[in-house]
Amino acid sequence: MHELSIMQSALDQVLEKARQAGASRVHAIRLRIGALSGVVPDALQFAFEALAAGTPAQGAQLLIEDVPARFWCAACSHEFEATRMFAECPDCHRPSAELRAGREMELTSLEVD
Ligand SMILES: [Zn+2]
User: Fold this and answer.
1) Rounded to the nearest whole angstrom, what is the distance from the C-alpha of residue 82 to the centroid of ligand 1?
2) Closest C-alpha to 11, from 32, 33, 26
3) For the chain, which has fewer Cβ within 10 Å, the N-terminal or C-terminal residue?
C-alpha cells in the first residue's frame, strides 16, 4: 500500500520533531495532500493508526487539508483548478499539462507537549 510508506516517512518526521522539542506526546498532526498526489486520505488515516501504535504519536489527531489541483494555461496566461491529471483550460479549451499545485504531500504543523 502506497499510503503506508508515505505515512511512515511523515511519521518519522513527526517523531523526530517531537524528540527535538523534548515532547512526550503528539496531539495533532496536520498534512497537506494534493488532489493529484494519488494519496487516499482514508487509507492514510488507517496507515497512521497502524504505524503510530506504540509511539508518542499514538492517538494523535490526523488533520488532512486537501489542496486542489491547479494548472497553468500558457495561451491565456491564467491559472485554473481541475480535478484530473489532464485538464482543459476553461477559456481557450486547450489541454494543459503544466501542473502548478496538487501533487504535494507535506507536513504543515504539529502539536506536542
Ligand atoms: Zn487557456
Assistant:
1) 13
2) 26
3) C
